[in-house]
Amino acid sequence: MKAKVMVLLVERKFGELRGLLIDMPAADIAALIAEFPNELLPILFRVLPKELAAETFVEMEPNIQQNLIEAFSDMELKAVFDQLFLDDTVDIIEEMPANVVNRILRNSSHSTRAAINEALQYPKDSAGSIMTIEYVDLKADMTVGQAFATIRRTALDKETIYTCYVVDNARKLIGVISAKTLMLADQDQLVGDLMETNVISGLTTDSKEDVVGQIRKYDFLALPIVDTEHRLVGIVTVDDAIDVITEEAERDFAIMAATSPLENSYFSTSVLTHTRKRIIWLFVLMISATFTGMIISHYEVAVAGLPILVSFIPMLMDTGGNSGSQTSTLVIRGLATSEIRPRDIFKVLFKELRVSALIGLALALVNSVRMFILYHGEEQILMLILTTGITLFFVVVLAKCLGCCLPILAKVLHLDPAIMSSPMLTTICDACAVSLFFWIATRLLHIPVM
Amino acid sequence: MKAKVMVLLVERKFGELRGLLIDMPAADIAALIAEFPNELLPILFRVLPKELAAETFVEMEPNIQQNLIEAFSDMELKAVFDQLFLDDTVDIIEEMPANVVNRILRNSSHSTRAAINEALQYPKDSAGSIMTIEYVDLKADMTVGQAFATIRRTALDKETIYTCYVVDNARKLIGVISAKTLMLADQDQLVGDLMETNVISGLTTDSKEDVVGQIRKYDFLALPIVDTEHRLVGIVTVDDAIDVITEEAERDFAIMAATSPLENSYFSTSVLTHTRKRIIWLFVLMISATFTGMIISHYEVAVAGLPILVSFIPMLMDTGGNSGSQTSTLVIRGLATSEIRPRDIFKVLFKELRVSALIGLALALVNSVRMFILYHGEEQILMLILTTGITLFFVVVLAKCLGCCLPILAKVLHLDPAIMSSPMLTTICDACAVSLFFWIATRLLHIPVM
Fold first, then answer.
1. CA B31, CA A20: separation in Å to the nearest integer?
2. For a tag site, which of A314, A384, B107, B186 has the least CB within 10 Å?
């Protein structure tokens, strides 16, 4: 496909090229265009008919959008943005540098500019920032026939016509009615008699996770968003909900792997950006890990006296880290999906204490048998087994308690719970494991302390 | 709410209770019912009207569904399952033990049983296993008026009426038309003239991730699923897609944190089940980590001779593990969202090599400065710095290469790439880091080998 497009481009057969692209879905065209060098993007893009061009534009990655905007004339810029739904415009604006934003705003109509500015005022990550204002609103005293007439007249500019919202004269949300209900009703029935009055809605200031959670829970195609006086101001549609779910999960995956989330795809992110996104956390964790090293240095004499001690350190560190991440991942995801709330901390802690006691006991037991078989000739073997076993048990319990408390603490402090995941937790658990191990060892085994 | 329901239950005011519940969404009723003890579940459930009862049943967790089924009479069981959409029935059956499945099948009509059995034959995780067969199909020679009549007649039994599928006489999928297009058209226009003929569809044997990827990419409300002869056999709707996206992400989160995914929610999973889900991986990883310990044991004489060596081990182990997980997480998620394909391995490897070289250099540099400041009085300090720096560089490069290759290798071998995430990778990187460190140390520093 790429080769075919390239040939048509070089031969300047733009009519044929348009014919080829016009039947493709916008997402596929966007992916195809992304494979061409930057200088060819505007030519390719100009081949597309106006509406398809706008749809394709929305599907592109931010860096390609920016390249295109910079190549556009003001007229072209206006033509593309006039075709976009407002929520898409706002999404794009949020990713662009200030000079590009100014150019977009300068080329928008007065009313669009006002709407964009209003949308930009909602806090990032709030329902207000992801909602669209292009929805169908009906009145309770309309007949089904009148409702259909309204829908037909305005359908082209609306993001969804399948869920319609009923507002009173003060624009307060009083009901919701599906296109299905309307289609199954008689023409002269009243919307007010057919609508569902028990409406589930979100507030503009709700977090976008909460809004998306509602859509997922109730299998909605859209959720209405109201202001503090219960006036309808927008809707969040299911396709945007999917984007939020995907983004949030990918963001958590990234942060839990100690990287900053990428703005573009893996391949279109440069080596330098990849490096920049990953190196900061690695620095922080490397420096933190030297504390564990310092603790070991502190027991240098003990190490020299009984070097076999050191060989248990990796196992204790890894088991602590793994036990902790199991719990922290469950808690972080539980907080993200609102299954766990900060007030549940004692419930979670009690459960984790019991789980960790069982796991700690079992692991200590298996490890004791293993050590007895491997080292039964060594001097002080029983005390060595006891030292390792007690440390293992307490490290598992401590790691699971930290794995439960630290993410909840982060949430309470309005930090992202995901930063308290595996890498950070592992570093903390490492230091605890090593301290505990040497503390017990110097007490149970006959070795000099320093 | 719970207290109110409890009072009405105890006072046996079932009419009032029904009035209270009837206005609540099914998902909320399911959550409320889950808070009551097992023996009260059937009574609560019987209060609900038939259709709401079925909707509520679908929203419950598998363990509560099983409790209810076991309490149902055959007649009640039939009443509930008759109301369910087929794909929901299949989902429930897949979670139940064999005796419960048999009871459900015994109480289904002949045609339902045949359809269930067919659905159960699709491989787990295939598009066929999550699709529903309740869709609207139209013919190309119908007028819009006739199409509406068909939709109205069958709407109640269909999962979505907003996307309709056009099939020929051999049931081959030839077009798709939205309810919006139908609503905006004249009554006597032909479906064949209005429909979109460039239909994007999935195969029954496609993986469910692929199908869901299409829905996400094209913002569909439903994707049609065809057999190998392009006959329409079902659809996957956007609400099921959201469930798959959520489940897949949670599954990856769980596996990447070295636990088996939970079937029920965090709180409704017992301490014993939590323990069982987590302990196996901890055992495996604990035993693997002892290899790293054995490598250290092997260099016991070196450790005794220069104990300060040991204090660098945690930093090297952690940095290796963290660098590796950064890459493996990106690759695992890239594979899950099909952004990265196994054939991209060399592209990814080349990128990771450059990123890791940059990161390795930077970390080694910072670490050298840090060591020089902290330890500049120690003997052989320059060689010690060189040893640590070289090890650090190669550990980062190696960890990132493993983090890229191992998940892709797992994918090629039809294993879940997520098993090659942080915990497993950390254990492998640990052993490499320690071996490399002592190998270089015994060559650069004047210490005895064994």
1. 51
2. B186
